[in-house]
Amino acid sequence: MRLFDHSLRATLALALAGALAAPALAADPAVSTRNAPRSSEMSCLAEAVYFEAGGTGTKGEAAVAHVIVNRAESPKFPGTVCGVVRQGCQFSYRCDGKSDALANAERRERAYAAARAALSGAPDITKGALFFHAASAKPGWFASRDRVGRIGGNVFYR
């Protein structure tokens, strides 16, 4: 794990401390995030989950969130969640010319729940994955990566 001036998870855990009544609630997408503190890192992560994991279910959303957190902790990527999300066109929604508004309230709440859980230390179901793509895509350059598996309609790699 890469060390920052302040641990990413520790800093966010402090910011989120009042938002979680119990650790089990963090992973429950039914838990409302309406009144939760929305730090910039959580907002960036929720935005990416909203657009990159929409329609992939709770596990798919959690998996995408963990890939982004894993990247932020890797020396090969920017050292913050927002840095990872905003790095060029790594995530297709950032460069598609469409609105980046999180307009669907239900999807937005699920995305924030997944972001909160990942940033609060929920178990990484991707086992350290740094990459993913839609299962329907056939990107040739993933052949050189260690495949973790398919979760929620996406394929994950280390």
UniProtKB/TrEMBL annotation:
Residues 56-157 form the Cell wall hydrolase SleB domain. One of its GO terms (molecular function) is hydrolase activity. InterPro entries: Cell_wall_hydrolase_SleB, SleB_dom1. Residues 1-26 form the signal peptide. Pfam families: Hydrolase_2. It comes from the Bacteria. Keywords: Hydrolase, Signal. Gene3D superfamilies: Cell wall hydrolase SleB, domain 1 (1.10.10.2520). This is Cell wall hydrolase. It comes from Amaricoccus solimangrovi.
